[in-house]
């Protein structure tokens, strides 16, 4: 991840050594010493093979076409047939189309409907924006560069190409981490106030600032190198391949291992809390409603996190293995392995909208509204209400909580013995726990103790469904 696909750690020495290599083994040794990696290393092998073939061939007249035959065979070693290029293009095109349009629809569903504007969903907006941006600005460009090893997009976009993917992945994974921490706080310690809209924006802004700082070296050391017959975009580290490898390990730890560890711990504790205890036999409807809603949201986010982890694992393993065992770069099918691992990593950007649509009824209603122009998509009146109707979202000490407390007071007036018509006595009011409104009295004690992590004056069902 230290240098996402297009960013090869190519040094000036590598290009010079390859150009002056007298035979294949010398060129290979020069390439290994220079630390050339990824797709450019494949083409370095090809280039070295051409030089070796030309140097070992008998010297023939310039007009003779014979020397071109062995060169063509070596050059085509990593050139893919047209049908394979078409299949890879289709696969990457599907990822980009689904990721961009799916995540844009998610952003529209949340921002265009007040009922969807919750703390969790604001982080989902940030996650969707990161995924859509990486799919739109990075996936196809990297695919083209990996396929041809020819940079067509200029020096400025070379810097952006090496800088932005790490930024977007960092923003994505830490948006998921923020959701996990928010779920943990809401379920384990529900009496604490939730994040406000301002605090949520500050957290999102901080995530992007840290992402820019982590990815800045990729932008700083990006270079364009014009070689005979092609142009390269790469990251030239001042201290060479070792520095590049260390940076790559740091990036893997910060954008993969650490956030996944945090989310693993928090969701394990939350899962034990939500699924581990027994539900009282006759508790209130509100208790069951919030419990089910919380379980659905946590289940959805766990699936999102697991999907991200599975998709990016082969990609990170690929870069570590090819950096440690550089002879793997000479393998005949290494280009196919790279394209497959890169496709799987980029496909993580398209799964989230599908997961939201399948596991959340409001997102499903939103997607139906977005595609209602299709003849086979129908939006029911209930689904319209799911997005348009706004429930009260109590915050801190909300009016809904106050009204609930007022309505829970029972007041009775009885006539006095002294004067049945002019005086009355108010009996002592009997307060009831607002969190148990609608619950049976015989189970009120058990419900009040077991629902302490479910009901809070700072949250409502809308926060979890």
UniProtKB/TrEMBL annotation:
Compositional bias of kind Polar residues: 437-459
Taxonomic source organism: Neovison vison (American mink)
InterPro entries tied to this protein: GPCR_Rhodpsn (IPR000276), GPCR_Rhodpsn_7TM (IPR017452), Neurokn_rcpt (IPR001681), NK3_rcpt (IPR001013)
Compartments, as annotated in UniProt: Cell membrane
N-terminal signal peptide: none
Membrane-crossing segments per the record: 85-111, 123-148, 160-181, 202-224, 244-276, 297-317, 337-359
GO molecular-function term, one example from the UniProt record: tachykinin receptor activity
Domain of life of the organism encoding this protein: Eukaryota
CDD domains on file: 7tmA_NKR_NK3R (cd16003)
Protein name as catalogued: Neuromedin-K receptor
Cystines in this chain: 158-233
Main location group: membrane
Any single biological process term in GO: positive regulation of flagellated sperm motility
Keywords, comma-separated and alphabetical: Cell membrane, Disulfide bond, G-protein coupled receptor, Glycoprotein, Lipoprotein, Membrane, Palmitate, Receptor, Transducer, Transmembrane, Transmembrane helix
Matching Pfam families: 7tm_1
Membrane topology field: Multi-pass membrane protein
């Amino acid at each position: 991840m230290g240098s996402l696909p297009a960013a090869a750690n190519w040094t000036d020495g590598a290009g010079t050594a390859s150009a002056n290599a007298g035979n294949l083994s010398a060129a290979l040794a020069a390439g290994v010493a220079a630390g050339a990696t990824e797709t450019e290393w494949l083409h370095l092998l090809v280039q070295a093979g051409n030089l070796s073939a030309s140097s070992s061939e008998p010297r023939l007249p310039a007009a003779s076409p014979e020397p071109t035959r062995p060169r063509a065979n070596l050059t085509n070693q990593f050139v893919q047939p047209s049908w394979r290029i078409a299949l890879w293009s289709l696969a990457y095109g599907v990822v980009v189309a689904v990721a961009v349009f799916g995540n844009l629809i998610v952003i529209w569903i949340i921002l265009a409907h007040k009922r969807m504007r919750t703390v969790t969903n604001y982080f989902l907006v940030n996650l969707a924006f990161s995924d859509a941006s990486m799919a739109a600005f990075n996936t196809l460009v990297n695919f083209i560069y990996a396929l041809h090893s020819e940079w067509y997009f200029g020096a400025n976009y070379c810097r952006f190409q090496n800088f932005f993917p790490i930024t977007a992945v960092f923003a994505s994974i830490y948006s998921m981490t923020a959701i996990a921490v928010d779920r943990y706080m809401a379920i384990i310690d529900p009496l604490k106030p939730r994040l406000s809209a301002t605090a949520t924006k500050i957290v999102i802004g901080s995530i992007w600032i840290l992402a820019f700082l982590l990815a800045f070296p990729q932008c700083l050391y990006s270079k364009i190198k014009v070689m005979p017959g092609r142009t390269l975009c790469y990251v030239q580290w001042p201290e060479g391949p070792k520095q590049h490898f260390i940076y790559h390990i740091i990036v893997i730890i910060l954008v993969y291992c650490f956030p996944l560890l945090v989310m693993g711990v928090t969701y394990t504790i939350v899962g034990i809390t939500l699924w581990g205890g027994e539900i009282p036999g006759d508790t209130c409807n509100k208790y069951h409603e919030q419990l089910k809603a919380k379980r659905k949201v946590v289940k959805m986010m766990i699936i999102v996190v697991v999907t991200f982890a599975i998709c990016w694992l082969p990609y990170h393993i690929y870069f570590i293995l090819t950096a440690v065992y550089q002879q793997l770069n000479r393998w005949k099918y290494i280009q196919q392995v790279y394209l497959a691992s890169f496709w799987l990593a980029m496909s993580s950007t398209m799964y989230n909208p599908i997961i939201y649509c399948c596991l959340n009824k409001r997102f499903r209603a939103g997607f139906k509204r977005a595609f209602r122009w299709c003849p086979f998509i129908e939006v029911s009146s209930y689904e319209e209400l799911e997005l348009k109707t706004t429930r009260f979202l109590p915050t801190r000490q909300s009016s809904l909580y106050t009204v609930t407390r007022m309505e829970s007071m029972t007041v009775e007036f009885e006539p006095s013995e002294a004067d049945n018509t002019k005086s009355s006595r108010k009996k002592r009011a009997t307060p009831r726990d607002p969190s148990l409104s609608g619950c049976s009295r015989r189970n009120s004690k058990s419900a009040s103790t077991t629902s302490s992590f479910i009901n809070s004056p700072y949250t409502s069902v809308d926060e979890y469904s």
